[in-house]
Amino acid sequence: VAHFFGGGHITDAFYTAFRISNLLRRLLGEGALSSSFIPGFSQSLAQGGKQEAQKFLSALFSILLIVLCAITLLGILFASHLTQIIAPGFQTDPGKFKLAVSLTRWMFPFFIFISLAALVSGVLNSCKRFFLSAVAPAMLSVAEIGFLLICIPAAAWMHWNLTQEAQILGLAIAVVAGGALHFAIQLPILWSEGFTLKLSADWDQPHIRQVGSLMLPAILGLSVDQINSFVDTVCATYLTEGSVTALYNSKRVMQLPLALFGISIASVTLPIISDLTAQKNYGQFTFTINRSLRMVFFLVAPATLGLMLLSRPIITLLFKHGAFDSSAALLTSKALWGYSLGLIAYSGVKVLANAFYALKRPKVPVRIAAGCMFLNVLLNIIFMRIWGVMGLAVATSISSWVNLSLLYAFLQAELKKHSAPNVDQGPGLIKTGIKTLVASAGMSLFVYSFDQYAPGLSAPIRVFVAIAGGALIYFGAARLLKMDELKFI
User: Fold this and answer.
1) What is the pLDDT of residues 301-359, one digit of tens each?
2) At 426, is the pLDDT very low, low, confident or very high (cuts 50, 70, 90)?
3) Full-prediction pTM beyond 0.85?
4) Distances (CA, A) of 62 to 33, 71, 111, 114, 188
5) How many other C-beta atoms lie within 10 A of the C-beta of residue 133?
6) How far apart, in Å, do the first and last CA atoms of the chain sit?
7) Cβ distance 44 to 199 under 8 Å?
8) Residue 234 phi/psi, 5° resolution?
9) Please, is 264 exposed, middle or buried when counting C-beta atoms within 10 Å of its C-beta (0-12, 13-18, 19+)?
10) Widest distance between CA atoms in the chain
């Protein structure tokens, strides 16, 4: 996308429109739906078997389909008003605003497919089938890349002189196709587990009411980072051209280690701790949370330092070609540095918020999230005036660290009610932190020295050697320090 469209007003409009459907996807789809659905589905499967679980799934699918279609229709009808809310700064440029509105309308159906895909992923995760639901989101990239590398060259070969506005509309349609593929590719595994998606009018079930009671708080509690991203986008529309694109591209790079390590750990943890809560096994519950936090810190801390030290060469390698110039690359690398500060916090929040949803205490993360959102807005206003787009990313990182700290403190208090050991009294949390910092220090010294004293190498070799060498040093140091986390990988 950067190669074909650069980092200016076209991509600003595209990513603003995508932010709207993506925000709803996180709020009502992958975030809130998964965290509220999996505990109920796991309990239904354990207590009533597959027949009861299928009844629950059918009822929820029917309700969800109606709600998703209604929201999508309203979104298409009121796309202009939504764009005014999320991108008020665009109104000074009528062309950019009009393009953002048009793209919003085209991309809204993506919300339907991606939310249904989240429902199917929840079923598969409850059945301890994690691989396909983790790979399926790549279908969005497959559809987008397929459009860019096949459809646009084919149009040029047929002498169709498409404007960049027409090409970006085609990309919006490819986004919807990617959402449909994300949903469809999981269905065969769902069927192999003995479940189907079918309509049902039997909505009066206790587990349905449980999902409803958990979902509204989860919309705020588990998706605070997405709401912060929404606020960041609004603020970025007032900054220099390309700021919205810089935020989006930098966050995508940051989300690679977040998805590989943070979200994957949280996804595996949720069904396990939901089962343990149903069994009232709070000792093992504490052990699982402790182990998850240890793994988060062990895997995400070196990724954080690596992204901060290599932000400029990584962005140059990935984006600086085609229509994406040096100024856009610099803007993006600054945003990546700011977002990387909060990478550990983003991952930890996923794990700890899930702990409260498994304990059926959703109000705690909701209240914390609400306070952190206000903090993020305040910090945005202060930092964007000082550091521009990097200030928005730094503000998000700080508010996420506050969110993590408060969730951790409140979880300790919650575990005391169940006579469970505190998380920090579990096996090795502090020891893991100290050893991780020692191993990361060695890695960082190598990465920084190599980046500083090997400027003559080409960007691919420079980045590859820095990352590969840093990883070898880090895991070698972890082995020398006899870190238990190596066994869990």
Assistant:
1) 999 999 999 999 999 999 999 999 999 999 999 999 999 999 999 999 989 988 998 88
2) low
3) no
4) 14, 15, 16, 16, 20
5) 23
6) 33
7) no
8) -60, -45
9) middle
10) 72
Side-chain-side CA neighbours of 322 within 13 Å: the count stands at: 13
Report how far residue 10's alpha carbon sits from residue 197's, in angstroms, rounded to the nearest whole number: 38
Contact predicate 288/269, CB 8 Å = yes
Axis-axis angle for helices 110-126, 264-278 (nearest 10): 50
Measured between alpha carbons, how far is 400 from 372 in angstroms, rounded to an integer?
Answer: 7
Tokens 């699982």 identify what position?
288
Distance CA 445, CA 304 (A): 14
Tokens in use for 12? 């600003």
pLDDT digits (tens, 9 = 90+) for 105-145: 999 999 999 989 988 988 888 888 888 888 898 999 999 99
Three-class secondary structure assignment of the chain: CHHHHCCCHHHHHHHHHHHHHHHHHHHHHHHHHHHHHHHHHHHHHHHHHHHHHHHHHHHHHHHHHHHHHHHHHHHHHCHHHHHHHHCHHHHHCHHHHHHHHHHHHHHCCHHHHHHHHHHHHHHHHHCCCCHHHHHCCHHHHHHHHHHHHHHHHHHHHCCCCCCHHHHHHHHHHHHHHHHHHHHHCCHHHHHHCCCCCCCCCCCCCHHHHHHHHHHHHHHHHCCHHHHHHHHHHHHHCCCCCCHHHHHHHHHHHHHHHHHHHHHHHHHHHHHHHHHHHHCCCHHHHHHHHHHHHHHHHHHHHHHHHHHHHCHHHHHHHHHCCCCCCHHHHHHHHHHHHHHHCCHHHHHHHHHHHHHHHHCCCCHHHHHHHHHHHHHHHHHHHHHHHHHCHHHHHHHHHHHHHHHHHHHHHHHHHHHHHCCCCCHHHCCCHHHHHHHHHHHHHHHHHHHHHHHHHCCCCCHHHHHHHHHHHHHHHHHHHHHHCCCCHHHHC
Radius of gyration of the chain (CA): 23
Residues 6+ apart with CB under 8 A from 341: 304, 308, 393, 394, 397, 398
Q: In the block, which residue shows the tokens 């600086």?
A: 320
**Residue 131 neighbours by CB under 8 Å, 6+ apart:** none
